[in-house]
Write a structure and sequence with these properties.
four-stranded antiparallel sheet; alpha+beta; single chain; six-stranded antiparallel sheet
């Protein structure tokens, strides 16, 4: 009994392991900085991140991602969608923090154009498409682009991250400028 008690006590009070494996998800991840070129402003840095559970196939291979693979898209509702590859975070930037167009208005515009181009669609097909568009912003974005109903960004206007004032994007002279919190 003493030995069993000592074993249980020893297992409970082992020092914490310092691994880069998330014990809940079993995900192995780590970040490497390959090159740093000092500059007069920001340093040029090539940093890559590996995640064993990532499905992304980046420029460094499957599971790898870098800051150079961050992308900015215009949504069908005239918002900006920033996808940060390294962490996979998606941030929606809305005009003035309030949002661009309404999702329901975008869906109805898409459905109107689809009906015009394909009169043979049934009400059941239209309702199914409406529900799919309501659930899937990427489908809305793709169809809006394909039907030339894509969003338009206003130059000089401030788009705020998720309605919060600490981070924003402004389009000035065909360049997007992102301001981060201090």
């Amino acid at each position: 009994m003493k030995h069993l008690l000592a074993l249980v006590f020893g297992l409970l009070y082992l020092p914490a392991a310092h691994a880069i494996v998330d014990m809940r998800s079993a995900n192995f991840s780590d970040t490497w900085t390959d090159i740093i070129v000092p500059g007069s402003g920001y340093d040029l840095r090539i940093r890559r991140t590996y995640s064993s559970r990532s499905l992304f196939n980046g420029m460094f291979g499957f599971g790898w991602c870098s800051d150079f693979e961050t992308k900015l898209e215009i949504t069908a509702e005239n918002n900006l969608l920033l996808t940060e590859c390294g962490g996979g975070a998606e941030i929606t930037f809305r005009l003035g923090g309030n949002g661009g167009g309404k999702v329901s208005t975008t869906i109805e515009s898409i459905l109107k154009e689809v009906k015009k181009r394909n009169a043979k669609l049934t009400t059941k097909d239209i309702n199914r498409l409406r529900e799919d568009l309501r659930k899937d912003q990427y489908l809305r974005m793709a169809l809006a682009r394909k039907l030339d109903l894509g969003g338009k960004i206003q130059k000089g206007k401030v788009y705020r991250a998720n309605g919060v004032e600490t981070e924003n994007i402004v389009l000035k002279k065909n360049t997007y400028i992102r301001t981060l919190a201090d």
